[in-house]
Amino acid sequence: MSENLNKLFSPVRVVEEISANKTLDVYDTGKVFMLTSATVMTITLPAVGASDITGCCFTFICRAAPTSPLWGGGNYVIKNTADKIIGTVQSSTGGDGGDDLDGDHINFAAGAAVEADRIEIMCDGSNYYAYGFCNADGGITITTD
User: Fold this and answer.
1) Can you tell me the distance from the alpha carbon of 9 to that of 65, in angstroms, rounded to the nearest whole number?
2) What are 49-65's pLDDT values in tens digits?
3) pLDDT tens track for 81-101
4) Share in percent of the chain as helix, strand, coil (round to 5)
5) Which residues on adjacent β-strands are paired with residue 13?
6) Is residue 126 exposed (0-12), middle (13-18) or buried (19+ Cβ within 10 Å)?
7) Stated pTM of the model
8) Which residues contact residue 5 at a Cβ distance below 8 angstroms, ignoring those fewer than 6 apart?
9) Number of C-beta neighbours around residue 85 at 10 A
10) Bridge-partner residues for 16, per DSSP?
11) HSE on the CB side for 89, CA within 13 Å?
12) CA dihedral 30, 14, 133, 117 (to 10 degrees)
């Protein structure tokens, strides 16, 4: 009986594939997004400062390596236009994938990002905090306009 209850109430995360532009809202919190587009796409984060944004978290995983470069960034772009992304990205080579204290965009860079590169984002109501891991230096970058 307890085995069935454990299955019923297990902390399963919702996984959603993204292959086109998407705007997230607070109801997307906790989801794992698999990035699969063959073309440039942009994912827009909810605006910080809203009363219900505190505690929102999102995970993005590269399921298909981006191949179409976007001017100034990568194939997959996660954006927040208010200079509110604070984060760091580390690569498996020990190098720095990218750091920023007032970023606007997180880029999965064409030609550098590969399958399984990932970034996790958490909001405290005022800022987004991003922590990423990639295979190659520059696979994921955090940039400011």
Assistant:
1) 34
2) 777 889 999 999 999 88
3) 678 899 989 888 776 656 667
4) 5, 40, 50
5) none
6) exposed
7) 0.85
8) none
9) 26
10) 33
11) 31
12) -150
